[in-house]
Automatic annotation (TrEMBL):
Record's protein name: Phosphate transport system permease protein
Cell membrane found in the keyword field: yes
Compartment(s): Cell membrane
Annotated CDD domains: TM_PBP2 (cd06261)
UniProt source species: Geobacillus thermocatenulatus
SUPFAM superfamilies xref list: MetI-like
Topology with respect to the bilayer: Multi-pass membrane protein
Recorded GO CC terms: plasma membrane
Function description: Part of the binding-protein-dependent transport system for phosphate; probably responsible for the translocation of the substrate across the membrane.
Chief localization: membrane
Transmembrane segments: 31-54, 83-116, 128-153, 159-177, 222-244, 281-300
Stored NCBIfam families: phosphate_pstC
Keyword Transcription: no
One GO process term, biological-process aspect: phosphate ion transport
């Protein structure tokens, strides 16, 4: 038999190695795609199960309580079969509104200072500080609010206890301020420098550039930052529980102890039977929070898509 030439043997070896490489790569790609698909399916199943379970359990409350009483009555008294959640729903919206009223202007002004006015070294230091503040556990904010802020409010206003919407809003403002500031800072930095230079070329001042060019150009990112802060304020529990008072009553004067959906769920969930109407009412409150959070996330996604298409 004729022996193969060395060149032919080397070509055969290289072809075999190349073929084995592509087979291995193909299998790796198939395996990677399989794990990605499995992860997506697992995530969808888990989220769907959570939504279905909370929805099914929460909607059971309307077997014993009318929707009108649940949403519009302010009387929560399970011993007398009264399950009005208006105080908690209104308190949640009120706390969120006051929180955003405090945190949004400060956050935007701080972001403008970091992005446009601070020296580079100070920018880096402030951004690092904000990142650290975002990671502080909420229980720390709540403890500081309960031990320092509440006594200060009680002394300043003469209120009997000092707990209430005002204390909760201040604590939540401190918590969401780093989040809104950092996202707004990123949105401002994403504005092209050519737009700034065009403003200066037309004789505009720095203040005019910020007010008429920078902020309007970054409005989608700023709105997304505010909505994300709102979502965190709506879902916060432990810090609010420690400073709001946890009483089922109106707190429109800001210094009267009140309650919100999250704090009421935490305070009541261990004291009710799972198959009771009270527990179903708590799950209905959780369902409201879930749908509010989903709505806010959808708004953020829409704003980002709008911002991307406009740019």
């Amino acid at each position: 038999m004729e022996k193969l030439s060395p060149d032919w043997t080397e070509a055969t070896r290289l072809w075999t190695a190349h073929r084995q490489h592509w087979i291995t790569k193909y299998r790796s790609d198939r395996l990677f795609r399989f794990f990605c698909l499995a992860s997506i399916v697992f995530l969808i199943v888990v989220l769907s199960a959570i939504v279905l379970f909370v929805s099914k359990t929460g909607l059971l409350v309307f077997r014993d309580v009318s929707p009108w009483e649940f949403f519009f009555s302010s009387r929560w008294d399970p011993e007398h079969h009264r399950y009005g959640a208006a105080v908690f729903i209104t308190g949640t919206l009120y706390v969120t509104f006051v929180t955003l009223l405090m945190a949004t202007p400060i956050s935007i002004l701080t972001a403008v200072f970091i992005a446009e006015m601070a020296p580079p070294r100070l920018q880096q230091w402030l951004r690092t500080l904000l990142d650290l503040l975002v990671g502080i556990p909420s229980i720390v904010y709540g403890y500081l609010g309960a031990t320092l802020l509440v006594p200060w409010i009680r002394k300043l206003t003469g209120a009997p206890v000092g707990d209430g919407i005002l204390a909760a809003a201040i604590v939540l403002s401190m918590m969401i301020l780093p989040t809104i500031t950092r996202i707004t800072d990123d949105a401002l930095c994403a504005v092209p420098n050519e737009w700034r230079e065009a403003n200066y070329a037309l004789g505009g001042t720095k203040i005019e550039m910020i007010a008429k060019v920078l902020l309007p150009a970054a409005k989608s990112g700023i709105a997304a930052a505010v909505i994300l802060g709102m979502a965190r304020a709506l879902g916060e529990t432990m810090a609010v529980v420690m400073v709001i008072g946890n009483v089922a009553q109106w707190g429109f004067d800001l210094i009267t102890p009140s309650s919100v959906l999250t704090s009421h769920i935490v305070m009541q969930i261990l004291n009710v039977d799972f198959h009771s109407t009270a527990n179903h009412a708590l799950y209905m409150m959780a369902l409201l929070l879930l749908f509010i959070s989903i709505s806010l996330i959808m708004m953020i996604r829409r704003l980002r898509l709008k911002g991307g298409s406009s740019s």
